[in-house]
Write a structure and sequence with these properties.
Strand content: 25-35%
Bound molecules: FE2/S2 (inorganic) cluster
Order of helices and strands: HEEEEEEEEEEE
Number of strands: 11
Helix content: 10-25%
Distance between the termini: 102 Å
Radius of gyration: 35 Å
Amino acid sequence: MPMGKNIISTKPTTTEDTNRRKFLLWLSSLGLFGSAVISVVSNLVFIKPRATYGQPNRFSVGKPDDYPPGTRIALDNHRICIVREENKIAAVSTTCTHLGCIVGLSETGFACPCHGSRFDQDGNVTGGPAPKPLAWYKINLAPNGELEVDKDAEINAGTYLNL
Ligand code: FES
């Protein structure tokens, strides 16, 4: 065969050849589409963080007026109880110091439904297996007028925020 010459097939294209080409075109398009879908899905999987985070330890619990004087209001979602005296307020943990159940409010303070630990109004142990008192957390009045509790900052029992 002479060099530099283009070869043009003189064989006529049949319907079978056309169908094969269409099939191969469809197959390669399907492959491209599939790899695009896999690429997008895998990128989304990697973009979404795998780590899950619990609730923040510093959070707002509303305004002082939400807690009338002389009340104790349990916020189970935060595992604290807001104790409001006339002009002072505090945040006491409602996590039992025995095995971590949420204590409920009782006439005399707090009572744990799990193994019967009891605490007085200040969170001191008065009965049951709990090894230590309930924690008190720092509570501040934020510039926006809302109370902010910091569960990373334990304070001495009986330490209220003066309003
Ligand atoms: S967890 Fe509260 S008494 Fe055991």
